[in-house]
Design brief:
Layout lengths: L4 E8 L2 E13 L5 E4 H6 L6 E6 L5 E13 L2 E10 L6 E3 H6 L2 E4 L4 E4 L7
Parallel strand pairs: 2-7, 3-6
Antiparallel strand pairs: 1-2, 1-5, 4-5, 5-6, 8-9
Length: about 120
């Protein structure tokens, strides 16, 4: 199976004119979204807390997190954002996708909008 990418605008909710845009890897195995830390700091976002994440190799790492707005495919959602390494590839996690009613079509490796957002 290949990879799916989508352009995402990250916005500071306290200063909506402060934004950063990047090409995000869609990762349905990731719960939260990861953004290069320097990009989050550049738009005025600072860590609010730390959370422990399990990596693909099974190891655990404690990472800084904050909240912000993500805009993609004509939708906006508030999301937990992980401060990644400054050179990290941005990752769009499944929580942001599901929150706006978008899922990954694994056959075509594309994002598709559900007829309605699940509330069950």
């Amino acid at each position: 199976m290949g990879t799916t990418h989508v352009t995402v605008m990250v916005r500071n909710p306290a200063g909506p004119d402060k934004t950063w845009e990047g090409l995000f890897l869609v990762d349905i195995g990731a719960v939260d979204s990861l953004v290069p830390g320097n990009a989050l700091r550049a738009i005025g976002l600072t860590p609010k807390s730390k959370r422990t994440y399990e990596l693909a190799d099974g190891s655990e790492v404690k990472m800084d997190i904050t909240t912000g707005d993500l805009e993609f495919m004509g939708e906006i959602v508030g999301a937990t954002l992980i401060f990644g390494a400054d050179d990290a590839e941005p990752i769009l996690g499944v929580t942001a996708l599901e929150s706006v009613g978008i899922e990954v079509d694994p056959r075509n490796q594309r994002l598709k909008r559900l007829p309605a957002t699940r509330l069950k």
